[in-house]
Amino acid sequence: MSISLLLPLLLLLLSTFFPRSRNLAVPQELKNLSQNLITYNTPAISPSSSSLVVSFSISPSPTPTTLPVNPPLVPAFFIFGDSSVDCGTNNYLGTFARADHSPYGRDFDTHKPTGRFCNGRIPVDYLALRLGLPFVPSYLGQMGTVEDMIKGVNYASAGAGVIFSSGSELGQRISFTQQIQQFSDTLQSFILNMGEAAANELISNSVFYISIGVNDYIHYYLRNASNIQNLYLPWSFNQFVAASIRQEIKNLYNMNVRRVILMGLPPIGCAPYYLWRYNSKNGECIEEINDIILEYNFVMRYMIEELGLKLPDAKITFCDMYEGSMDIIKNHELYGFNVTTDACCGLGKYKGWIMCLASEIACSNATNHIWWDQYHPTDAVNAILADNVWNGLHTKMCYPMNLEDMVAPRTK
Question: Which residues constitute the signal peptide according to the record (predicted)?
């Protein structure tokens, strides 16, 4: 690409993420964070009080217009993860990983960007409605009152990983360990407001959804950060990440969490970014990357199966995103997709070089695309994956049970 075309794009990038009226400097206290040091201890986080929040004003994410009409199947829905389920957390952070600008959200209920890395809904939006609940608010997007959080909270942060430094080159993000700490703060708020018995009853009957780990590969292992590839072979690294997630699930169990959906990793070797970076000739997926993901999902699935046996009063299920996504890619014509390799929004080969910066570089119709941007699927794909998590409508993804089975009323 010529310099004359590249320069305006770089200026657009800078103006998108660093507008003059905003100061995105990283606070000093964040530079010294470690995995075991959480600098915030109150569930009442607002843009003016939290050290995690950058010093600029921002409007709350638009309220979705679609509300559930059926009685809720569970009291609340709690979500942990990365950009696959971030619904606005990173709108409040100093980071390049932001989806608070057009064309993100153009096909959402409000037709406005909300912080979701998609043209429309993310999987947990569809699942919330299945559960009879409203869309779940971001932890940083509500005021910390019990009324705001009683039906669920979304702690997910784009760029976050299991390893604390995963995604650090993008700027601020809230790691998985920190998200668990945020939930602990939420639980303490519930206990103070409704009593320990009522709070534990609410938590034990709610659903917890975890979608984390992909950034530990995209922004850490595959980048060979800290020379990690010379220290860990893929199998050993997979074991490390899986064991770390397993421990956090045990930590949640100790806080009375009993219903957990753990999402596996998607086939990122098929993502437009890696097709571009590895110069895929005809859109073939990068098998060396997908092999690592396959191996990780194998390890995670059976580690979760073992954990379920040790925690018999818990319902923990593993949903294989690789299986569900590859079913869509291989059978794309049956699902109505005719663009399987190129992102809807981006620049470069497969639209994988430059991220989705502006509406001018987005396709006019995302419904026939599998990929929305460099890494993230379209709303249409998210709907299919959510159906599979709910009841395996299109293909079986979840083991040993679907979400519908998990929340089914107990029979005497």
Answer: 1-23
Distance CA 291, CA 5 (A): 37
Rounded CA-CA distance 239/296 in Å is 7
C-alpha dist (Å) from residue 6 to 13, 192, 347, 353: 11, 55, 11, 12
- On whether residue 130 sits in a domain, the answer given is yes
Place of tokens 């009226």: 21
Q: Is residue 121 part of a domain?
A: yes
The tens digit of pLDDT for each residue in 147-202 reads 989 999 999 999 999 999 999 999 999 999 999 999 999 999 999 999 999 999 99
Residue 69 lies in a domain: no
Residue 97 has φ and ψ, to the nearest 5°, of -85, 75
The answer to the question of residue 373 being in a domain is no
What single-letter amino acid sits at 292? I
What is the domain-level CATH number for residue 182? 3.40.50
On the CB side of 109, how many CA atoms lie within 13 Å of its CA?
A: 13
CA 208, chain centre distance (Å): 13
Active-site positions? 83, 373, 376
User: 253-302: per-residue pLDDT in tens?
Assistant: 999 999 999 999 999 999 999 999 999 999 999 999 999 999 999 999 99
